[in-house]
Structures are given as structure tokens and as C-alpha cells.
Amino acid sequence: MLKINNLHASVEDKGILKGINLEVKAGEVHAIMGPNGSGKSTLASVIAGKEDYEVEQGEILLEGENIDELAAEERAHKGIFLSFQYPVEIPGVSVTNFMKTAINETRKAKGLDDMPANEMLKMIRQKSEMLEIDRKFLSRSLNEGFSGGEKKRNEIFQMAMLEPKLAILDETDSGLDIDALRIVANGVNKLKSKDNAVIVITHYQRLLDYIVPDFVHVLHNGRIVKSGTKELAHELEEKGYDWIKEEVGA
Amino acid sequence: MSKYTEDDLREELKTKEYEYGFYTDIESETFPNGLNEDIVRAISKKKEEPEWMTEWRLEAFRVWQEMTEPEWANVHYEKPDFQAISYYSAPNSKPKYNSLDEVDPELLATFEKLGISLDEQKKLAGVAMDVVVDSVSVATTFKKTLAEKGIIFCSISEAIQEHPELVKKHIGTVVPQKDNFYAALNSAVFSDGSFCYIPKGIKCPMELSTYFRINQAGTGQFERTLVIADEGSYVSYLEGCTAPSRDENQLHAAVVELIALDNAEIKYSTVQNWYPGNSEGKGGVYNFVTKRGLCETNAKISWTQVETGSAVTWKYPSCVLKGDNSVGEFYSIAVTNNYQQADTGTKMIHLGDNTKSTIISKGISAGKSQNSYRGLVQIGSRAQNARNFSQCDSLLMGNECGAHTFPYIEANNKSAQIEHEATTSKIGEDQIFYCNQRGIDTEKAIALIVNGFSKEVLNKLPMEFAVEAQKLLEISLEGSVG
């Protein structure tokens, strides 16, 4: 699904990623953990194609295709989805209208006609029921006045609507209480299948109690310094990140 | 990764041609440049006007001569030389047409380029058109349907001929000849415009629509519109404008007067897209308009405008709330790009008791443009329990444009309730990236964000107009994020 080879990336001439290697196969869940400033969110943004980031070396392959030259929206059309840590507000644009636009733009890129309105409505109904989202919520302006939990649930709702191949969840647990966390995690688990893959970026282990990863990677100073199974996450929770830093001699 | 920088955007914006820039080659009859009493008389004569109308024009001209151009607006431009303008120009193929087949094919082609072909418009049931090209009406449709209800919808020239008592009684009662410099000029030289009368208790069954355009090099256009809604009647009037691109500045000084008698309601919607000038700020239309409505008891006037065009806009559609319980509304979207300057807003004059006004203004500035909201809420000393709510929002794109708000409030009665809210925001790269990540490209993302910002006003437009307005917003702002 996703293969990253020796990826170096910088923002405003400051090197952040310094040689990332990662392979994610269909059906897998990978967790990327690491201390603040280790480059976790940068990695998410670079995969999604944010323009401020300059790829200096290495390559990102999605299903074998180098996506380095593709604009963010083209990557989205190919099935990359990023659940934002801080989803932005767009006043006056309802969640429904935003999703309609996103779905139809993606269809247009694939040479398809707009999704018929009744099909769209049916899909909205299905997905909102699955995620226990009150449909009144969908007519509100995108993220405007949403609570932290509502914002993250809305991200997962969008993920459900867009049915991506690769979903990257950037600090989806931040700002959530335990109930909201459970709802969001359940949503992600329902959307998981053997045909898609999920990368969970998180600082804390607790989200991984709900979304259980197949692999855990520790990012430090722009490199993956340790990989393992979910046990690694527990170890990090107990001991913190310092021992890793010592281990890699940073 | 493809890099699309702010510079690229700026470049794209500069090289973007005015989408409606073309010129129709219709033979026309044009007066020599310059303005004096003889020219005023000649215009009046050309239009076969009665003596009282000629005198009314001359009165206006004499007042105008004593006046100076206003300079208080937040706009800077080279003042027009009023002696270098021709004050009359009429398409040659003059007689009115009964069917589209008789209309000059080149004119029809022009409409097709604009995507508003009469063919299409005629099919759009419920829209009657009085098309004004270069000052003289050349086609009127749906007139018969309207006539059955006693509704008069025609050119103002025709109204002066056919309904002199109505025109004589009402013209200049809301915007007097001496109201301001441009209104005085218009009163002296107006060439044509629209007239509408809705009889007592009649609800006009369709949206009335007029397309104004400026079509002849160097001719100013001075439109005069008079809408009278008699007691208990209702009318929704649409005015839309596009103009071919032109190098020298074109002056436009229109006057619109609305009169809503007891219990009547007038909804007046405008989409304006005159040539805004090129990317260096050269050319473009000067739009100095006086629009005002008078509300009698329980009457209501709603102004809705989407302003995307013109190099300089000076425009304040206003309501005089004379009657008790009367209501005035102003909903506006003003978009400026490149070197465009807009100074626009409204005046709500509360004279009657329990009068209510609402002002929603959305300014969108891009490029090096300047966008000002200027509004006056005035509560007369005898107006008990007057209420006003004003909201002025500005959206900025890039770092070189400006948004300004000049709200004036004069409350002379202690029972008045006045609320004013204002916000300024900027389209952020984060918003764009968020949309991109969901598969929405940057152009579409801007359109989405701008439409969201403007929604409260777009919702006030009649359906078919809202679609056109949305299209215009997108065209005006393509590629203009910073």
C-alpha cells in the first residue's frame, strides 16, 4: 500500500525528516509514536502533500506509484486521507455541503459524474448511523463552534464518507475525554478492512488500547529509531521516551 | 511535489483576462462630446419628451453646474472630464421587436457570450426582461402577461410618453435633482432606464429583470429607474450588469428610486459585473450610483446586491423609513480584486415609529484592492422604538488589499435599539490545505470558502440570480489566495 524510502523533508530550510523508511501493507494498522518535535505531524503532512514541506531526498510510493509530484488533492483522489490534529473552521459551509463537494471533486478526477443526490443522502444516513452522529450536526458550519470531540468525530465521519485506502490519524486522541475517545476509536475500527490501511500518530499509548496496532514505530529526531509490536507501546507508556533517546545515543 | 506559491497565484491573477471582455459592433447614433443646455434639450427632443420633462432636466443641469464632485469617499481616481463625454448614443435598429427573430443577431450573440441569451431567459418561466443596451430598450418580453394584471413594466422613456401622470408625480421625490452631484447629472441627461408600476393589492407574478450594459466607446451611461409599488402590492425586481472591456474609463451614474406605498413590498436585487480595469488598474467603469427607496406605513424595501465589477464603485442603496412599522433591509456582497476600489454601504433613515432595519454587508478584498463599507443609521427624534441590526464582515485574500468599515450612527431618540457587529478574517493556507486534502483543488476551495462567507446574502437572492452570482464570485476571485 504505502512504501516510504529514505525520506528527507524540510520546512523553511529546516530539516525535519532525516531518512524515514516505512512500509504499510493493506489490512495493517501502524502506530507512530514519539516525543514532541520528533517529526510525527510533519510525516503526516508530507505524505498528504502539504506545500510548505520540501522533499529533499527519498520517495513515497502509493501502491507502487511515486506520488512525490502530485498535489495534495491528487493524493486525496488516490485514496490518502488525513485526519487533522486541528481541523479548521469554514464558516457558512455545512458538513454535508463540504462532503458533497469533496466526493464529487474526487469523482470528477476519476472521470465519473456527480453522485446522485439520493445516493449521497443514503450514504450520509448510513455513515452517520454507524458513527452515532446526530444528523442535525451535519447541517452545521464545518467545525465552527464544534467541541474537541465533535471535531474529531467529524474527521472520522469524513473518513467514512471518502472511504480512503490509507488513513492517517494525526493525534486524533488529543483533546478527547475517554468517552469521545472510545466513540472515535470504534468508528475507526468499523472502517478498517483488509483492503485499507491506517497509520495512527499519537503521543500516548491510550488510543492504542482501542485501535490496536499491528506495528509500532518510534520516531525520534526525524528517524524511526525503533519498531516493534504493540508491546513496545506499553513499554513506552511505562518508561517514557528517555530510554529510547539514550539507546540511540541522541 | 508541485509548488504553487503566492507569486504563481499573483501571476495567474494578473494574466487573467476579463471573462466578459468583448465588444458588440452595432451601428449607433452618437451625440458629439460635451454638455450644455443645448445638449440637454437635444436629448429631451430626441426622446420626444413633453415640455415639463425638458424643464425638469434643465433645472437639474443648472443645479449640477453649481455643484462639485464629492470627495469624501475612500476612493482615488482621475476625475472624469465631463466635457469629453458623449451624452447620448442609441442603437440604430430602433423600432421595438415583437419577437427575438427581429433582434440584431449580433446582439443576440453578445447575450449568448454572457450566458444570458434571451432564448434562455424567455424559457425561464417567470422572468420578464426589459433589455437595455446602450441606453435604449430594444426588446421587452412578457409585457402582455403583466398588462393583464395592470402592471406597467417598460422603459422610462416610454413611461414618460404613456404614463406621464405617474412619472411626473413620482420622479425626483425620493432622489431629488439636487440630491448630489451625480444624481443631478443623471437627472439632466438620463437617456433611458426602466419604469415599473404595480397597482394596488397586486402581487407581481414574476421576477422583473433588466440587464443593463454599456456598449459604446466613450459614452457614459445614465440610467434612470423608477419603481412604484402601490398600496398592498409586491414586486421583486432584478438588475444585472456586464459590460465589454474598454481602455478609457466609462462613467456610469445611475439613479434608482423605489416607492413602496402603504403595506407594499419591494425586493430589489442587483448583480453588477462591469469591467473592473486590467491588472494594472487601467480602464474600468466608474460606477457612481444613487439608489434610494421610500417606505410608507407598514411598507418594506429590501436591497440585495452582489458587486464584483467596476474600477471605482460609489454606491449606497438606502431606505427612508417614513411610515410607521416600515422595514428596510440591505444585503450586500462587494468583491474587489487587482486595483478595484469600492466604497459602498447603505443609509437607513428611521423617521416613523417602530421602524426596523437590517444591514448585512460582506466585503471580500483581493489583490491590491480597497474595499470600504460606509453606512449610516439615523434615528429621527420622533421615531419611537426604532431598531437596527448591522453586521459587517470582511474577508481578505493576500497581504496587499484593504478592508475598511465606516459605520455612522446618529440616534436622536432614546428608545432606539441599535446593534453593530463587525468581523475581519483572512482565507488561510490551512483552510486551503484542509480542502485540498479532501480532494478539493485550490480554485474550488476558494469558491467554497467565499460562498460560505457570503451565504447569508446569497440566500436573499432569487434562485436563478443566486446561481449567476455564485458564478460571478468564482470568476472574480479565481486564483486569488495569499
- Known CATH architecture of chain A: 3-Layer(aba) Sandwich
> Could you give a short account of the major beta sheet of chain B?
11 strands, mixed
Helix content of chain A: 25-40%
| Order of adjacent strands in the largest pleated sheet of chain A | 6-9-10-3-11-12
Strand content of chain B: 25-35%
What Rg of chain A is obtained from the alpha carbons, in whole angstroms? 18 Å
Query: Which stretches of chain A of 5+ consecutive residues score pLDDT under 50?
Result: none
- Total strand count of chain B, please? 23
Question: Would you mind describing this structure in some detail?
Answer:
The complex is a heterodimer of chains A (about 250) and B (about 475). Chain A contains 8 helices and 12 strands. The longest helix of chain A has 15 residues, at about 95-110. Chain A has helices spanning about 40-50, 70-75, 95-110, 115-130, 150-160, 180-190, 230-240, 240-245; strands spanning about 1-10, 15-25, 30-35, 55-60, 65, 80-85, 90-95, 140, 165-170, 195-200, 215-220, 225-230. In chain A, strand 9 (about 165-170), helix 6 (about 180-190) and strand 10 form a beta-alpha-beta unit. Chain A has about 250 residues and is an alpha/beta fold. Chain A is globular, with a radius of gyration of 18 Å. Chain B is of the alpha/beta class. Chain B has one domain (about 5-430). Chain B has 12 helices and 23 strands. Chain B is globular, with a radius of gyration of 22 Å. Classes of the chains: A alpha/beta (about 250), B alpha/beta (about 475). The interface between A and B is medium-sized, with 36 and 27 residues.
